[in-house]
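Item description
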Amino acid sequence: MPTLRELLRQRRALDQLIADYHQRERPAALASARALAAEYDLTAEQVFGTSTPKKSRSQLGRYLDLKSGNTWDGTGAPPRWLGTMKRLY
């Protein structure tokens, strides 16, 4: 049974082999990806999606004033426009 020190040495050697493989194969993979993107006339946005991050649930407003588009997330003092609206539930 190998010792912990031997296993860690083997892991470092494998990590180095993996890094060498990635470095050696990266140019071919990049050329292949570029060729496919050119062949199918793909844009970076189509391949990788939009670059703007989506709002998380906590950032979205819980209350919406349909007339003005104002939102309130429920923290802090309620805005004046919320007091004039009917409660939906």
